[in-house]
Write a structure and sequence with these properties.
Blueprint: H1 24-37, E1 45-51, E2 57-63, E3 66-68, E4 71-77, H2 81-88, E5 91-98, E6 103-113, H3 116-123, H4 128-136, H5 146-159, E7 171-185, E8 193-200, E9 203-208
Antiparallel strand pairs: 1-2, 1-5, 3-4, 4-7, 5-6, 6-7, 7-8, 8-9
Helix pairs in contact: 4-5
Amino acid sequence: MDLADIRKDYRLKAMDEHQISRNPMEQFETWLNEAFEAKASEPTAMILATATLQGVPSSRVVLLKAFSERGFGFFTNYSSRKGEEIAANQHVALLFHWPELERQVRIEGIASRSSAEESDNYFNTRPYESRLSAVISDQSKVVPDRAYLEKLWDVQQDESNKEEVVRPDYWGGFVIEPQKIEFWQGRPSRLHDRLLFSRVEDGWTISRLAP
């Protein structure tokens, strides 16, 4: 396979700055709903990029679990690599990719912890097995082997019932307050539409970027 020969021409839709919502959060909600309607694979999946204070980046896929004018929310182990990097450097980036619609949304913002009440409320909606995994997993830390994890699972399962599995202090939510949101729509001949919303004191500015 010659990777240089792989091509796809994007032709599904266009994006006009005079027709898009002036509120990027409303526009994102519209696109997210359209991703669900298009039966996109994992429409709430987003790539989360974090970095150390020295600027060493890392990224992984997490799931959007809360969305409002306040920002974009997800849940994780606070002691994981992403949790520790956010604690040291709150500047993060998100990327949604919906290939079925030939769209991307890129977000840059500031991450902060959700309230304990918000984290409790979400944790209690999770399946029993997911709550159990959150309790036993020392996320991102080295473990001896798979058998070690399965033994922790068995022990915790023997010691718990569904009502007793409560959210541990080291697990909870983050909310990313966006400072920039870029909407990308694939177009023919690589002349893609890119509209960038930048936060200012009284709202948002909109700029068109060259593809």
